[in-house]
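User: My collaborator sent over this chain with a note saying "see what the structure looks like." That's all I know about it. Can you take a look?
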Amino acid sequence: MTWRFIPLTAVVCLFPSIPALAQEAESIALGDGSSLTIEEYLIERPDQGAATVVVMARPNFDPEPFGAVPSDDFARRIQPLCAGLVQNSGETLQAENARSVRIRWDFTPSYDTGAPDWMEMSRFHEFLFALDENGMCIPQPLGVGLDNLEPDLPSGLPVVLRYIEPGPRARQLTLTYDVAEDLGAVTSEKLENAAIELCILHADLVLDDRRQYYQHLETGLVAIAFSQSGGRGQELERRVLFGIKDGACDTGLSPALVEAIRGTEQAVAAPPPGSEQP
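Assistant: Without extra context I'll predict from the sequence alone. Here is the result:
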């Protein structure tokens, strides 16, 4: 894998709102009153395959005023930055054969990290967006693993995970999925079955990470949200809510059924015997 700086002329092209890279005071508004400062652009190019544009930035606000939080919590806030990059720099991205954008912001925590006074702690959040054939920024949540965003569900509902985020209710965790089927025509039974499966296959992973690394984040409710755009600025969304019991989704299923659903997904993901490449 190779790295290189994008030349200054390309930086201007990549984000015209920054007249020159040296003007570090120039900030990019995120649309909700917050902003961040772009420090540099890089191209990450693997030995084979498409390139990734890496945007190194610094938030002009405290992203963790109450303690460490997962980077996925900020994906919606960051997505307009990726969209603006694509809108203003389509030709440059195409020339670089860029198929994804990774935005990283570094910051010094304001909360007590427990580190000695002489040691300044630093943290960062990263956000990955794939670029589809229409130049749209498609969020790639990191919380369940990039190879696990599109699980094969026993219910058969085709879904792709797009957001892992808190809210909108207090102490609620929401996982939002794009549905590759007419969402309005999906029966309630199929939708509820799919939600149960996603709670077990995805939400339980996220809850486990939060319990292990973000103990101060209380979660009492999980929402599995199914979303579909109508193409005219309208969006249909259907949600299924779950309580939490013993740190996992309370689906009402027996432990044997829960393990069976997990086993079904693992069996789908595993290659058939004898198909491994040497």
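A starting point for your reply to your collaborator: Confidence is low (pLDDT under 50) at residues 1-25, 267-278.
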